[in-house]
Amino acid sequence: MSIRVCILEDDKIVRDGMAELVNQSDECFLVGTYETAEELMKQFNIMNPDVVLVDIRLPGRSGIDCIRELKSRYPEIKTQFLVCSVYKDNENIFDALCAGATGYIVKSDGVKHLIESIKEIHRGESPMSGVIARQVIAAFQNRKTKNEYLQLLTEREREILDFLSRGHRYKEISSRLSVSLETIRTHIHNIYEKLQVSSRTDALNKVYGR
Known about the structure:
Blueprint: E1 3-8, H1 12-24, E2 28-34, H2 37-47, E3 51-54, H3 63-73, E4 80-85, H4 90-99, E5 103-106, H5 114-122, H6 130-151, H7 155-165, H8 170-177, H9 181-195, H10 200-208
Parallel strand pairs: 1-2, 1-3, 3-4, 4-5
Helix pairs in contact: 2-3, 3-4, 7-9, 8-9
């Protein structure tokens, strides 16, 4: 059975190029092409695609918003969302994955792997361009390091560090937690000792990578 594919892309040249590739494939069937998220969302339930190729930056709602809305509106759908974007930054990558995308490829890779990526995502895999996979791995490794530092701290110390990260002064933290200023100073001294740092900036850089 052919893989039912839908394309959400505002650039007509790119959209037509993707459509041609899908139409040339014996294993895929193009069910629709759309320029805006709003147009796709109106027709989505009628098309019932297996795979949607999604650009991020679109006129109107973004591709990420579209994925999030459709996953919320139809929680039982088996449709897979494959992001095809020029953006390679962490924010867009993780916003897309958190919204419900299960694959992410960059347009600079060209279109030669597009059909293979469609087949991979349809059979339950998560195709990603090499540069995207590397950033995902690095982010998880970095998160592990942060978690290791946070594990050194007590719950109260983590709470105070969070206040510090949001720019609160010692007196403000003291007031919010209903403890003495001296107690806050003691907690902060202990935080610095455990993290082996000597300032608020160093502590935040070590834990949050700022």
